[in-house]
Amino acid sequence: MRRLPAHWHLTHEDSVVDQQNISREGAAFALPRWEFITICAGLMALNALAIDIMLPGLQEIGSSLGVTNENHRQYVISAYFAGMAAALLFYGPLSDRFGRRPPLIFGLAVYILAAIGAVFAPTFETLLAMRAIQGVGAASTRVIAVSMVRDRFGGRAMAEVMSLIFMVFMIIPVLAPNIGQIVMLFSTWHMIFAVMAAIAFGIALWTFIRMPETQHPEDRRSIELRSILQGFGIVLSNRISLGYTLASTIIFGALFGFINSAQQVYVGIYDLGVWFPIVFAAIAGMMALSSFLNSRLVGRFGMRRLSHGALVGFILVSTIWLLWSLTGPVPLPVFLVLFAIAMFQFGWIGSNFNAIAMEPLGHIAGTASSIQGFLQTLGGGLIGAYIGQQFDGTVTPLAAGFAGVGIAGLAMVLIAESGKLFHSHSAPPSSGKASGGH
Fold it and tell me: For 133-142, what is the mean pLDDT?
Protein backbone atom coordinates (compact mmCIF):
# COMPACT_ATOMS: atom_id res chain seq x y z
CA MET A 1 0.00 0.00 0.00
CA ARG A 2 1.26 3.47 -0.87
CA ARG A 3 2.05 5.50 2.24
CA LEU A 4 0.19 8.73 2.83
CA PRO A 5 2.23 11.90 2.25
CA ALA A 6 3.90 13.08 5.45
CA HIS A 7 2.14 16.44 5.36
CA TRP A 8 -1.33 14.88 5.54
CA HIS A 9 -3.16 15.01 8.87
CA LEU A 10 -6.29 12.89 8.55
CA THR A 11 -8.92 13.52 11.20
CA HIS A 12 -12.50 12.71 10.23
CA GLU A 13 -12.94 13.92 6.70
CA ASP A 14 -12.69 11.04 4.21
CA SER A 15 -9.95 9.23 6.17
CA VAL A 16 -11.65 5.88 5.63
CA VAL A 17 -12.16 6.60 1.96
CA ASP A 18 -8.53 7.66 1.56
CA GLN A 19 -7.21 4.47 3.11
CA GLN A 20 -9.58 2.23 1.16
CA ASN A 21 -8.87 3.80 -2.20
CA ILE A 22 -5.14 4.35 -1.81
CA SER A 23 -4.90 0.60 -1.31
CA ARG A 24 -6.58 0.15 -4.69
CA GLU A 25 -3.77 1.99 -6.44
CA GLY A 26 -1.66 -1.11 -6.11
CA ALA A 27 1.99 -1.70 -6.86
CA ALA A 28 1.04 -3.65 -9.99
CA PHE A 29 0.08 -0.48 -11.87
CA ALA A 30 3.14 -0.09 -14.08
CA LEU A 31 2.73 3.50 -15.26
CA PRO A 32 4.70 5.98 -13.09
CA ARG A 33 2.55 8.38 -11.10
CA TRP A 34 3.95 11.46 -12.85
CA GLU A 35 3.21 10.00 -16.27
CA PHE A 36 -0.30 8.95 -15.28
CA ILE A 37 -1.04 12.48 -14.08
CA THR A 38 0.50 14.03 -17.19
CA ILE A 39 -1.49 11.86 -19.59
CA CYS A 40 -4.76 12.51 -17.73
CA ALA A 41 -3.97 16.23 -17.72
CA GLY A 42 -3.20 16.11 -21.43
CA LEU A 43 -6.49 14.38 -22.15
CA MET A 44 -8.48 16.93 -20.18
CA ALA A 45 -6.42 19.76 -21.67
CA LEU A 46 -7.69 18.86 -25.14
CA ASN A 47 -10.95 20.52 -24.09
CA ALA A 48 -9.16 23.76 -23.21
CA LEU A 49 -7.13 23.49 -26.40
CA ALA A 50 -10.29 23.23 -28.51
CA ILE A 51 -11.46 26.56 -27.07
CA ASP A 52 -8.48 28.70 -26.16
CA ILE A 53 -6.29 28.21 -29.23
CA MET A 54 -8.96 29.70 -31.45
CA LEU A 55 -9.86 32.77 -29.39
CA PRO A 56 -7.47 35.03 -31.34
CA GLY A 57 -9.08 33.83 -34.58
CA LEU A 58 -12.76 34.37 -33.75
CA GLN A 59 -12.87 37.76 -35.41
CA GLU A 60 -11.32 36.46 -38.64
CA ILE A 61 -13.58 33.41 -38.61
CA GLY A 62 -16.60 35.70 -38.41
CA SER A 63 -15.33 37.92 -41.22
CA SER A 64 -14.29 35.00 -43.43
CA LEU A 65 -17.59 33.14 -43.10
CA GLY A 66 -19.92 36.14 -43.23
CA VAL A 67 -20.99 36.37 -39.57
CA THR A 68 -22.31 39.92 -39.14
CA ASN A 69 -23.39 39.79 -35.47
CA GLU A 70 -20.23 39.76 -33.36
CA ASN A 71 -21.96 37.90 -30.51
CA HIS A 72 -22.76 35.08 -32.95
CA ARG A 73 -19.06 34.27 -33.24
CA GLN A 74 -19.42 32.80 -29.76
CA TYR A 75 -21.48 29.97 -31.30
CA VAL A 76 -18.18 28.38 -32.38
CA ILE A 77 -17.59 27.75 -28.67
CA SER A 78 -21.22 27.03 -27.78
CA ALA A 79 -21.52 24.38 -30.53
CA TYR A 80 -18.52 22.57 -29.08
CA PHE A 81 -20.07 22.50 -25.61
CA ALA A 82 -23.42 21.36 -27.05
CA GLY A 83 -21.81 18.38 -28.79
CA MET A 84 -19.88 17.47 -25.69
CA ALA A 85 -22.94 17.65 -23.45
CA ALA A 86 -24.95 15.45 -25.82
CA ALA A 87 -22.32 12.68 -25.69
CA LEU A 88 -21.27 12.76 -22.06
CA LEU A 89 -24.04 10.49 -20.82
CA PHE A 90 -22.97 7.68 -23.15
CA TYR A 91 -19.26 7.38 -22.42
CA GLY A 92 -19.70 6.67 -18.71
CA PRO A 93 -21.81 3.51 -19.00
CA LEU A 94 -19.67 2.35 -21.94
CA SER A 95 -16.48 2.76 -19.94
CA ASP A 96 -18.02 0.98 -16.94
CA ARG A 97 -18.89 -1.95 -19.21
CA PHE A 98 -15.95 -2.22 -21.64
CA GLY A 99 -13.19 -0.53 -19.65
CA ARG A 100 -11.68 2.92 -20.05
CA ARG A 101 -9.42 2.45 -23.07
CA PRO A 102 -11.76 1.50 -25.97
CA PRO A 103 -14.26 4.39 -25.57
CA LEU A 104 -11.39 6.82 -24.94
CA ILE A 105 -9.50 5.89 -28.11
CA PHE A 106 -12.73 6.12 -30.13
CA GLY A 107 -13.47 9.58 -28.76
CA LEU A 108 -9.96 10.81 -29.50
CA ALA A 109 -10.29 9.63 -33.11
CA VAL A 110 -13.58 11.55 -33.49
CA TYR A 111 -11.99 14.68 -31.99
CA ILE A 112 -9.07 14.58 -34.43
CA LEU A 113 -11.20 13.88 -37.54
CA ALA A 114 -13.63 16.69 -36.66
CA ALA A 115 -10.74 19.14 -36.24
CA ILE A 116 -9.46 18.15 -39.68
CA GLY A 117 -12.99 18.59 -41.08
CA ALA A 118 -13.14 22.12 -39.63
CA VAL A 119 -10.05 23.06 -41.64
CA PHE A 120 -12.07 22.63 -44.84
CA ALA A 121 -15.41 24.04 -43.60
CA PRO A 122 -16.85 26.21 -46.43
CA THR A 123 -19.61 27.84 -44.36
CA PHE A 124 -20.20 28.94 -40.78
CA GLU A 125 -22.91 26.29 -40.42
CA THR A 126 -20.50 23.55 -41.51
CA LEU A 127 -17.92 24.81 -39.05
CA LEU A 128 -20.47 24.70 -36.24
CA ALA A 129 -21.35 21.10 -37.21
CA MET A 130 -17.67 20.09 -37.09
CA ARG A 131 -17.30 21.78 -33.72
CA ALA A 132 -20.31 19.90 -32.36
CA ILE A 133 -18.85 16.59 -33.59
CA GLN A 134 -15.51 17.53 -32.07
CA GLY A 135 -17.31 18.06 -28.77
CA VAL A 136 -18.78 14.55 -29.08
CA GLY A 137 -15.26 13.16 -29.27
CA ALA A 138 -13.94 15.39 -26.50
CA ALA A 139 -16.63 14.12 -24.13
CA SER A 140 -14.67 10.86 -23.83
CA THR A 141 -11.65 12.67 -22.43
CA ARG A 142 -13.73 14.57 -19.86
CA VAL A 143 -15.51 11.48 -18.57
CA ILE A 144 -12.78 8.87 -18.76
CA ALA A 145 -9.86 10.94 -17.47
CA VAL A 146 -11.76 11.63 -14.24
CA SER A 147 -12.85 7.98 -14.09
CA MET A 148 -9.25 6.79 -14.41
CA VAL A 149 -8.20 9.07 -11.56
CA ARG A 150 -11.05 7.73 -9.40
CA ASP A 151 -10.02 4.17 -10.31
CA ARG A 152 -6.67 4.78 -8.63
CA PHE A 153 -7.38 7.39 -5.95
CA GLY A 154 -10.11 8.52 -3.56
CA GLY A 155 -10.83 11.21 -0.99
CA ARG A 156 -8.03 13.71 -0.36
CA ALA A 157 -5.68 11.65 -2.51
CA MET A 158 -7.99 12.24 -5.45
CA ALA A 159 -8.25 15.94 -4.61
CA GLU A 160 -4.45 16.18 -4.59
CA VAL A 161 -4.11 14.40 -7.93
CA MET A 162 -6.94 16.38 -9.51
CA SER A 163 -5.22 19.59 -8.37
CA LEU A 164 -2.00 18.53 -10.07
CA ILE A 165 -3.93 17.56 -13.20
CA PHE A 166 -5.71 20.90 -13.16
CA MET A 167 -2.36 22.66 -12.77
CA VAL A 168 -0.98 20.95 -15.87
CA PHE A 169 -4.34 21.44 -17.59
CA MET A 170 -4.03 25.19 -17.04
CA ILE A 171 -0.78 25.29 -19.02
CA ILE A 172 -2.96 25.02 -22.14
CA PRO A 173 -4.80 28.33 -21.57
CA VAL A 174 -1.36 29.86 -20.96
CA LEU A 175 0.07 28.52 -24.22
CA ALA A 176 -2.92 28.01 -26.53
CA PRO A 177 -3.93 31.63 -27.22
CA ASN A 178 -0.29 32.46 -27.95
CA ILE A 179 -0.05 29.49 -30.30
CA GLY A 180 -3.25 30.66 -31.98
CA GLN A 181 -1.89 34.20 -32.26
CA ILE A 182 1.35 32.94 -33.83
CA VAL A 183 -0.63 30.82 -36.31
CA MET A 184 -2.72 33.85 -37.23
CA LEU A 185 0.45 35.87 -37.93
CA PHE A 186 1.62 33.41 -40.56
CA SER A 187 -1.56 31.77 -41.82
CA THR A 188 -5.37 31.84 -41.64
CA TRP A 189 -7.80 30.56 -39.03
CA HIS A 190 -8.00 27.22 -40.89
CA MET A 191 -4.49 26.32 -39.75
CA ILE A 192 -5.54 26.68 -36.10
CA PHE A 193 -7.66 23.56 -36.47
CA ALA A 194 -4.80 21.72 -38.21
CA VAL A 195 -2.50 22.49 -35.27
CA MET A 196 -5.26 21.37 -32.89
CA ALA A 197 -5.55 18.03 -34.72
CA ALA A 198 -1.78 17.51 -34.63
CA ILE A 199 -1.52 18.13 -30.88
CA ALA A 200 -4.48 15.82 -30.22
CA PHE A 201 -2.88 13.10 -32.34
CA GLY A 202 0.30 13.29 -30.26
CA ILE A 203 -1.61 12.93 -26.98
CA ALA A 204 -3.75 10.12 -28.42
CA LEU A 205 -0.66 8.21 -29.55
CA TRP A 206 0.98 8.59 -26.11
CA THR A 207 -2.22 7.39 -24.44
CA PHE A 208 -2.60 4.42 -26.77
CA ILE A 209 0.97 3.26 -26.21
CA ARG A 210 1.44 3.94 -22.51
CA MET A 211 -1.85 4.11 -20.60
CA PRO A 212 -3.01 0.69 -19.35
CA GLU A 213 -6.56 -0.20 -18.41
CA THR A 214 -7.36 1.30 -14.99
CA GLN A 215 -10.80 -0.12 -14.28
CA HIS A 216 -10.89 -2.92 -11.74
CA PRO A 217 -12.43 -6.08 -13.23
CA GLU A 218 -14.90 -6.44 -10.37
CA ASP A 219 -16.31 -2.99 -11.17
CA ARG A 220 -17.54 -3.93 -14.66
CA ARG A 221 -21.25 -3.20 -15.03
CA SER A 222 -23.82 -4.48 -17.48
CA ILE A 223 -24.72 -2.18 -20.35
CA GLU A 224 -28.38 -3.20 -20.12
CA LEU A 225 -30.81 -0.32 -19.75
CA ARG A 226 -31.83 -1.46 -16.27
CA SER A 227 -28.24 -1.42 -15.05
CA ILE A 228 -27.58 1.98 -16.62
CA LEU A 229 -30.68 3.49 -15.06
CA GLN A 230 -29.75 1.96 -11.72
CA GLY A 231 -26.34 3.62 -11.94
CA PHE A 232 -27.96 6.95 -12.82
CA GLY A 233 -30.26 6.56 -9.82
CA ILE A 234 -27.34 5.91 -7.46
CA VAL A 235 -25.58 9.07 -8.64
CA LEU A 236 -28.61 11.35 -8.65
CA SER A 237 -29.89 10.18 -5.27
CA ASN A 238 -26.67 10.93 -3.39
CA ARG A 239 -27.15 14.35 -1.78
CA ILE A 240 -23.45 15.13 -1.35
CA SER A 241 -22.53 14.12 -4.88
CA LEU A 242 -25.47 15.85 -6.55
CA GLY A 243 -25.15 19.00 -4.46
CA TYR A 244 -21.48 19.50 -5.24
CA THR A 245 -22.02 18.61 -8.89
CA LEU A 246 -24.70 21.29 -9.20
CA ALA A 247 -22.51 23.77 -7.32
CA SER A 248 -19.56 23.20 -9.65
CA THR A 249 -21.92 23.34 -12.64
CA ILE A 250 -23.11 26.79 -11.63
CA ILE A 251 -19.60 28.05 -10.82
CA PHE A 252 -18.22 26.74 -14.11
CA GLY A 253 -20.89 28.82 -15.83
CA ALA A 254 -18.88 31.90 -14.84
CA LEU A 255 -15.74 30.50 -16.47
CA PHE A 256 -17.63 29.62 -19.65
CA GLY A 257 -19.19 33.08 -19.68
CA PHE A 258 -15.78 34.68 -19.51
CA ILE A 259 -14.37 32.42 -22.24
CA ASN A 260 -17.28 33.33 -24.51
CA SER A 261 -16.67 37.06 -24.11
CA ALA A 262 -12.90 37.14 -23.40
CA GLN A 263 -12.00 38.50 -26.82
CA GLN A 264 -14.65 41.22 -26.55
CA VAL A 265 -13.52 42.22 -23.05
CA TYR A 266 -9.78 42.24 -23.60
CA VAL A 267 -9.79 43.59 -27.15
CA GLY A 268 -13.11 45.41 -27.41
CA ILE A 269 -13.13 47.15 -24.02
CA TYR A 270 -9.46 47.36 -23.07
CA ASP A 271 -7.97 47.43 -26.59
CA LEU A 272 -5.20 44.99 -25.74
CA GLY A 273 -4.79 43.81 -29.33
CA VAL A 274 -1.88 41.39 -29.66
CA TRP A 275 -1.38 41.55 -25.87
CA PHE A 276 -4.67 39.71 -25.39
CA PRO A 277 -3.12 36.19 -25.37
CA ILE A 278 -0.43 37.27 -22.88
CA VAL A 279 -2.92 38.72 -20.40
CA PHE A 280 -5.19 35.69 -20.89
CA ALA A 281 -2.21 33.44 -20.16
CA ALA A 282 -1.32 35.38 -16.99
CA ILE A 283 -4.79 34.79 -15.54
CA ALA A 284 -4.58 31.10 -16.45
CA GLY A 285 -1.21 31.02 -14.70
CA MET A 286 -2.86 32.25 -11.52
CA MET A 287 -5.28 29.33 -11.70
CA ALA A 288 -2.40 26.91 -12.25
CA LEU A 289 -0.60 28.30 -9.20
CA SER A 290 -3.79 27.98 -7.19
CA SER A 291 -4.14 24.33 -8.19
CA PHE A 292 -0.55 23.57 -7.19
CA LEU A 293 -1.04 25.18 -3.78
CA ASN A 294 -4.26 23.21 -3.34
CA SER A 295 -2.39 19.96 -3.96
CA ARG A 296 0.01 20.88 -1.14
CA LEU A 297 -2.62 22.12 1.33
CA VAL A 298 -5.57 19.79 0.84
CA GLY A 299 -4.04 17.00 2.92
CA ARG A 300 -3.55 19.32 5.88
CA PHE A 301 -6.75 21.37 5.80
CA GLY A 302 -9.20 19.17 3.88
CA MET A 303 -11.23 19.62 0.73
CA ARG A 304 -14.19 21.29 2.40
CA ARG A 305 -12.33 23.94 4.37
CA LEU A 306 -10.29 25.03 1.35
CA SER A 307 -13.12 25.01 -1.19
CA HIS A 308 -15.72 26.60 1.09
CA GLY A 309 -13.34 29.40 2.01
CA ALA A 310 -12.48 29.93 -1.66
CA LEU A 311 -16.16 30.08 -2.61
CA VAL A 312 -16.91 32.74 0.00
CA GLY A 313 -13.90 34.73 -1.21
CA PHE A 314 -15.02 34.31 -4.82
CA ILE A 315 -18.39 35.84 -3.96
CA LEU A 316 -16.86 38.77 -2.07
CA VAL A 317 -14.41 39.68 -4.83
CA SER A 318 -17.06 39.32 -7.56
CA THR A 319 -19.43 41.55 -5.60
CA ILE A 320 -16.75 44.25 -5.23
CA TRP A 321 -16.08 44.00 -8.98
CA LEU A 322 -19.79 44.31 -9.75
CA LEU A 323 -20.34 47.33 -7.50
CA TRP A 324 -17.29 49.07 -8.98
CA SER A 325 -18.54 48.48 -12.52
CA LEU A 326 -21.92 50.02 -11.66
CA THR A 327 -20.22 53.28 -10.72
CA GLY A 328 -18.44 53.61 -14.07
CA PRO A 329 -15.71 52.03 -16.24
CA VAL A 330 -13.38 49.68 -14.36
CA PRO A 331 -9.73 50.60 -15.05
CA LEU A 332 -7.70 47.78 -16.57
CA PRO A 333 -5.35 47.37 -13.54
CA VAL A 334 -8.34 47.13 -11.17
CA PHE A 335 -10.12 44.68 -13.45
CA LEU A 336 -7.05 42.45 -13.73
CA VAL A 337 -6.42 42.42 -9.96
CA LEU A 338 -10.04 41.59 -9.04
CA PHE A 339 -10.40 39.06 -11.84
CA ALA A 340 -7.08 37.37 -10.99
CA ILE A 341 -8.12 37.01 -7.33
CA ALA A 342 -11.47 35.50 -8.37
CA MET A 343 -9.77 33.04 -10.73
CA PHE A 344 -7.19 32.11 -8.09
CA GLN A 345 -10.03 31.06 -5.81
CA PHE A 346 -11.72 29.27 -8.69
CA GLY A 347 -8.71 26.96 -8.79
CA TRP A 348 -9.45 25.80 -5.23
CA ILE A 349 -13.14 25.32 -5.94
CA GLY A 350 -13.04 23.17 -9.08
CA SER A 351 -10.72 20.30 -8.16
CA ASN A 352 -12.06 19.96 -4.59
CA PHE A 353 -15.72 20.08 -5.58
CA ASN A 354 -15.16 17.40 -8.23
CA ALA A 355 -13.29 15.18 -5.77
CA ILE A 356 -16.03 15.54 -3.13
CA ALA A 357 -18.70 14.77 -5.73
CA MET A 358 -16.87 11.62 -6.90
CA GLU A 359 -15.92 10.47 -3.40
CA PRO A 360 -18.90 8.19 -2.64
CA LEU A 361 -19.17 6.76 -6.17
CA GLY A 362 -15.88 5.00 -6.80
CA HIS A 363 -17.34 1.71 -8.06
CA ILE A 364 -19.49 3.41 -10.71
CA ALA A 365 -16.87 6.02 -11.52
CA GLY A 366 -17.60 6.04 -15.25
CA THR A 367 -21.33 6.55 -14.85
CA ALA A 368 -20.79 9.11 -12.08
CA SER A 369 -18.26 11.08 -14.12
CA SER A 370 -20.58 10.88 -17.11
CA ILE A 371 -23.56 12.38 -15.31
CA GLN A 372 -21.48 14.97 -13.52
CA GLY A 373 -19.75 15.95 -16.74
CA PHE A 374 -23.09 16.18 -18.54
CA LEU A 375 -24.59 18.45 -15.91
CA GLN A 376 -21.48 20.60 -15.65
CA THR A 377 -21.01 20.96 -19.39
CA LEU A 378 -24.64 21.48 -20.39
CA GLY A 379 -25.60 23.55 -17.37
CA GLY A 380 -22.33 25.47 -17.24
CA GLY A 381 -22.39 25.97 -21.00
CA LEU A 382 -25.93 27.34 -20.96
CA ILE A 383 -25.16 29.65 -18.04
CA GLY A 384 -21.96 30.75 -19.74
CA ALA A 385 -23.73 31.33 -23.06
CA TYR A 386 -26.33 33.47 -21.32
CA ILE A 387 -23.66 35.52 -19.54
CA GLY A 388 -21.71 35.93 -22.77
CA GLN A 389 -24.75 37.04 -24.75
CA GLN A 390 -25.40 39.82 -22.22
CA PHE A 391 -22.20 41.59 -23.24
CA ASP A 392 -22.98 45.27 -23.72
CA GLY A 393 -19.58 46.90 -24.10
CA THR A 394 -18.89 46.93 -20.34
CA VAL A 395 -17.73 44.35 -17.78
CA THR A 396 -20.93 44.73 -15.73
CA PRO A 397 -22.74 41.67 -17.20
CA LEU A 398 -19.68 39.51 -16.59
CA ALA A 399 -19.27 40.80 -13.03
CA ALA A 400 -22.97 40.23 -12.32
CA GLY A 401 -22.67 36.72 -13.71
CA PHE A 402 -19.71 35.93 -11.46
CA ALA A 403 -21.42 37.24 -8.33
CA GLY A 404 -24.69 35.53 -9.19
CA VAL A 405 -23.23 32.08 -9.84
CA GLY A 406 -21.14 32.35 -6.68
CA ILE A 407 -24.21 32.92 -4.53
CA ALA A 408 -26.17 30.16 -6.29
CA GLY A 409 -23.24 27.76 -5.92
CA LEU A 410 -23.04 28.52 -2.20
CA ALA A 411 -26.73 27.68 -1.88
CA MET A 412 -26.10 24.25 -3.45
CA VAL A 413 -23.20 23.57 -1.07
CA LEU A 414 -25.35 24.52 1.94
CA ILE A 415 -28.04 22.09 0.78
CA ALA A 416 -25.46 19.32 0.25
CA GLU A 417 -23.91 19.90 3.68
CA SER A 418 -27.19 20.42 5.57
CA GLY A 419 -26.38 24.06 6.20
CA LYS A 420 -22.83 23.55 7.53
CA LEU A 421 -19.62 24.96 6.07
CA PHE A 422 -15.91 24.50 6.86
CA HIS A 423 -16.37 21.19 8.67
CA SER A 424 -14.72 17.80 8.34
CA HIS A 425 -17.08 15.16 7.05
CA SER A 426 -17.49 12.92 10.09
CA ALA A 427 -19.23 10.08 8.29
CA PRO A 428 -17.49 9.30 5.03
CA PRO A 429 -19.79 7.82 2.45
CA SER A 430 -19.25 4.19 1.77
CA SER A 431 -17.07 3.40 -1.20
CA GLY A 432 -18.48 -0.09 -1.44
CA LYS A 433 -19.91 -1.49 -4.62
CA ALA A 434 -23.28 -0.43 -5.80
CA SER A 435 -25.53 -3.41 -5.66
CA GLY A 436 -26.58 -5.09 -8.84
CA GLY A 437 -25.78 -4.44 -12.41
CA HIS A 438 -22.32 -6.00 -12.42
Answer: 93
Residue 10 dihedral angles phi and psi, to the nearest 5°? -80, 125
pLDDT exceeds 90 at position 195: yes
Which of 110, 206, 94 shows the shortest CA–CA distance to 144? 94
Q: Where are the alpha helices (DSSP H) in 237-331?
A: 239-263, 276-301, 303-327
Q: Considering only CA atoms, which of 104, 109, 106, 113 is closest in space to residue 211?
A: 104
Phi, psi angle pair for 409, to nearest 5°: -65, -40
Spans of all domains in the chain:
32-416
3-state helix vs strand vs coil in the chain, percent to 5: 80, 0, 20
pLDDT tens string 88-135: 888 888 888 888 999 999 999 999 999 999 999 999 999 999 999 999
Domain 32-416: CATH class, spelled out: mainly alpha
